[in-house]
Amino acid sequence: EIPLRLVGSEMCIRDRINCECKSFYKRGNDMSKLLIQGGKKLSGSFDVPAAKTAYLPILAASVLSEEKVVLHNYPGFADTENMCNILSSIGVKIERQDDCLIVDPTSLFSWSIESELASQVRSSIFMLGALLAKERKAKVAYPGGCEIGVRPIDIHLSGFRKMGVKVEEKHGYIYCDASSIHSAFLTLDFPSVGATESLMMAACLCDGETRILNAAKEPEIVDLQNFLNAMGAEVHGAGSSEIVIYGVKKLHGCEYDPIKDRIIAGTYMIATAMCGGDVLINGVKSANLQALIDKLDKTACLIDVKNDKIRVTRGDCRLGCLGKIETSVYPGLPTDLQAQLLALATISEGTSIIVENVFESRFKHVPELIKMGADVHVCDRVAVVRGCNALYGASVCGMELRGTASLVLAGLVAEGYTTVSGVKHVDRGYNKIETDLALLGADVKRIDD
Ligand code: EPZ
After folding, report:
1. 401: Cβ below 6 Å to ligand 1?
2. Would you say the CB of residue 153 lies under 6 angstroms from ligand 1?
3. Which residues contact 178 (CB under 8 A, 6 or more apart)?
4. Which atom belonging to ligand 1 lies closest to the Cα atom of 79?
5. Is residue 24 predicted with pLDDT exceeding 50?
6. pTM for this predicted structure
7. pLDDT band per the 50, 70, 90 thresholds, residue 72
8. How far apart are CA 205 and CA 212, in angstroms?
9. Shortest-distance atom of ligand 1 to CA 218
């Protein structure tokens, strides 16, 4: 006979144990770590894979086709794998052939994306625009993605509503009825990459002329336009702030080779600037990284550009002061390189000011860098970084994709050994980062506890 209060506390203890077990189990799922011995220079050549942020909307848009679509150079990041799972869950057949994906949307049988899949990635939200265009209805659970801010979807939804879509949000799902969808002139409150892509897809099979003003201008938006047009769509103006879509009756299959990942390229350019050495980055148009090149060239390293080859060299000179770094929408400095640049700033001369203008909570890597000896103070969206002579190895934990990448870069230059946990985050956007870096001369190993 256990007195009620004990039962309460026992229940509480049991719950806590269960909870810890569960959380342990959850932690157990991603116990792998990266073990890095710092101090190695980087050298060699790196072929950049296809871009995650190009592949994800293109995978969603493949649903619009009446025939098979062949996508080349599939990168196999965790996020693209999750997107393939989402497509398979609604009947899209996906076959891998060498480095291609053959996507067959002709057996699509559902317009509903469940929470356990949708919540894995931010890009599940793209399925709304694609399903509304193709099926005229959709039920999609709220998206997941890196925890770098609230990441609302209001701009997506207000665009759909202006196109006559009935949108209802309840029980964690977005229910849409697009039976009376029509073209519209839309002005985005913010040049949101995802909202621009969602609305481009929604308008493709919708009679009439749709205009998207204050559209995002990222290279991945241009790539989505080129993919849609390869399927027979009529999309123009991507890369500028005004995109025009003339709706067509249906789209046919195509073969397509998405652009390369400028953020991976930028990450390894920064890594070379930090470690010293001589690395040739192949496959990315330098124009897609001009803001980074302007920031790094002659302060942190020497950059030589020839077509889609970017050569980064740094000798033994001290890293110059980066000064003020402000992230912005394209063509400004990408927010997805902020964490990596902050890691660079921790060992650069003088004091750097880093302003994160795109996401409101994107400094989660800072406390971990401080464990490695970095001198950083954060207030709201501003980080003040006083350069130090050296970082020292420590056990650190990644919390989101690019922040975890920045901890890896810090480990490459830190004295001694660094272990980086939270590897599942970096796997979302880099395919075996340890292999990429080891091929360039770094001492990085993945250890599974
Ligand atoms: C895309 O996210 C990328 N993700 C992000 O990459 C990238 O950082 C971001 O664009 C900016 O370039 C994918 O493409 C899957 P946004 P997205 O809509 O579309 C606010 C990485 O590391 N906003 O341009 O979610 C939003 O909160 C990831 O690879 C609204 O307020 O970015 C943010 O503050 C991280 N309402 C700002 O706009 C909306 O409806 C930019 O977001 C939509 C966005």
Report:
1. yes
2. yes
3. 132, 133, 136, 137, 138, 160, 163, 164, 165, 166, 202
4. 15
5. no
6. 0.93
7. very high
8. 15
9. 12
Is ligand 1 within 6 A of the CB of residue 78? no
Of the candidates 153, 89, 137, the one whose C-alpha atom is nearest the C-alpha of residue 117 is: 89
Exposed / middle / buried, residue 302 (Cβ in 10 Å: 0-12, 13-18, 19+):
middle
**Which DSSP state fits 120?**
T
> Which residues lie closer than 8 Å to 11 by C-beta, 6 or more apart?
none
The token duo for 280 is: 């040739």
Give the strand pairing for 351-355 and 324-326: parallel
Question: Using a 6 Å cutoff on CB, does residue 264 contact ligand 1?
Answer: no
448 pLDDT band (50/70/90 cuts)?
confident
Q: What span, in angstroms and rounded, lies between the C-alpha atoms of 74 and 444? A: 24
8 Å CB contact between 274 and 413: yes
Nearest-CA residue for ligand 1 atom 42 is: 192
206 catalytically annotated: no
The span from the CA of 65 to the CA of 349, in Å, is 53
Distance from the CA of 151 to the center of ligand 1, in angstroms?
7
Helices first, then strands: H and E counts in the chain: 15, 24
* pLDDT tens digit sequence for 388-434: 999 999 999 999 999 999 999 999 999 999 999 999 999 999 999 99
- Encoded tokens for 244: 């025009």
Give the residue-averaged pLDDT of 25-50: 83
Strand-strand pairing, 42-47 and 69-71: unpaired
* Residue 318, helix vs strand vs coil: coil
Tell me how crowded residue 115 is: count the other CB atoms within 10 A of its CB.
Answer: 16
Residue 298 backbone zone (phi > 0: left; psi -120 to 50: alpha; other: beta): left
Residue of 423, 414, 417, 427 whose CA lies nearest to 449: 423
Task: Compute the distance between CA of residue 271 and CA of residue 436 in angstroms, rounded to an integer.
Answer: 11
Tokens 């953020």 found at:
263
Cα 107 from chain centroid?
29
CA distances from residue 434 to 41, 269, 443 in whole angstroms, order as listed: 15, 15, 8
Amino acid sitting at position 64: L
* Vertex 372: Cα angle to 366 and 376 (nearest 5): 40
β-bridge partners, 139? 112, 175
Distance, CA of 46 to CA of 148 (rounded, Å):
29
| Radius of gyration, alpha carbons of the chain | 23
